[in-house]
Design brief:
This protein is of the alpha/beta class. It has 15 helices and 13 strands. The strands form 2 sheets. The protein has a 7-stranded parallel beta sheet, sandwiched between helices.
Length: 366
């Protein structure tokens, strides 16, 4: 049995790939390093992995007092991770990028523990670009990401996704959600929700259901749920009695939601894209305009270039524009089918297995 530190957090795009790898290491001992104030804490606890807490936040973008405070905070977090390494002696560390993973990866470098990184995006984030040169190897979701990473041992694995994406059928997924076996739309703004997507969608839910008999699964994000309900109740007070519509702040089981769907309206975080592709969905992307290094736009444009998605700028998103885009897919079955097939072609179902294989090779070389 080997012992691994897995690290990554803050958003689902960093957490779920890390969890997928942790789940695949089922015969080994897992310690998850993350911020106990973030989403990863609840997810890891549900999974039953041992959680090692570090207090770390994103780097301020300007040189001021907050930046100096952050330097001290990061330094203390790295020292704490060095203590964890001394205490638990991991055979290797695996990190999925982002600020939460930085302390454990830096501690691994200092303590000479082999570590591997995975980056989800077409343009890797700051932590990956700065720490990857010292990693034993780097896993990437996109071929074009190699241009930004200074490491000779780069593998294009795609994103690690949960095993059930391979096995769950569309009809079984719909049964789980008490939906009929017909055209279904998923609306989601990532784990945090997206106000612009929510506002435009809430305005057209009644029309999509009543005029087009479309089934809709709507994840609002926990912060935006009350606002969406208030908006919905003004437009469609009877929405709760409508069997076509499911509205929740958050779905713990996004595998079932996505596998049940034919069309998705989504932000363009890399994990969302990977899971959409694995579900064979026709996506309509609305990239988050303030994402670091503009990576969501780059991810979405990559999908559009491959003929595997449609694209709406956040600043141009209106209820009418969203409705017309969804209608263009409902009314043109060939267009819908082509997008679905092209997205499925881009799916990498063996990403998790490849990462685990490469990670275990590090411990054999140790």
């Amino acid at each position: 049995m080997k012992r691994f530190f897995i690290t990554g957090g803050g958003t689902g795009g960093h957490i779920y790939p890390a969890i997928a790898v942790a789940d695949a290491l089922k015969d080994d001992e897992i310690f998850y390093v993350g911020n106990p104030k973030n989403l990863e804490f609840d997810i890891v606890k549900q999974k039953g992995y041992k959680f090692l807490g570090v207090n770390v936040h994103g780097m301020p973008r300007s040189l001021n007092f907050d930046f100096i405070k952050w330097i001290f905070q990061l330094s203390f977090a790295v020292l704490k991770c060095c203590f964890y390494i001394l205490k638990y002696k991991p055979d290797a560390v695996f990190g999925t990028g982002g600020y939460v993973s930085a302390p454990a990866l830096l501690a691994a470098k200092v303590m000479k523990v082999p570590y591997m990184m995975h980056d989800c995006d077409a343009q890797p984030g700051l932590v990956t670009r700065k720490i990857a040169p010292y990693a034993c190897c780097v896993s990437l979701a996109f071929e074009c990401a190699k241009n930004y990473v200074n490491n000779k041992n780069c593998y294009i694995n795609g994103n690690p996704i949960r095993a059930e994406f391979k096995t769950l059928s569309k009809s079984d997924a719909r049964k789980r959600l008490n939906l009929e076996d017909r055209l279904t739309l998923c609306i989601m703004g990532g784990s945090q929700g997206a106000r612009s997507i929510n506002d435009a969608s809430a305005d057209i839910l009644k029309q999509l259901s009543k005029d087009f008999d479309l089934q809709i699964i709507f994840q609002t994000g926990k912060r935006n749920f009350d606002n969406v309900l208030e908006q919905l109740l003004k437009i469609y007070p009877e929405y709760e009695a409508d069997k076509n519509i499911i509205v929740k702040p958050y779905f713990d089981d996004m595998v079932t939601v996505l596998k049940a769907s034919d069309i998705a309206v989504s932000r363009s975080g890399s994990l969302s894209i990977s899971e959409i592709c694995a579900s064979g969905i026709a996506p309509i992307f609305v990239p988050y305009p303030y994402a670091a290094a503009d990576h969501q736009r780059k991810n979405a444009k990559f999908m559009v270039e491959k003929g595997a998605g449609l694209y709406i700028e956040d600043s141009e998103l209106t209820a009418n524009k969203l409705l017309e885009t969804i209608k263009s897919l409902m009314q043109d079955k060939n267009k819908l089918s082509k997008l679905q097939k092209n997205s499925l072609v881009l799916a990498k179902f063996d990403g998790t297995e490849m990462i685990v294989k490469q990670l275990k090779e590090l411990t054999n070389e140790k």
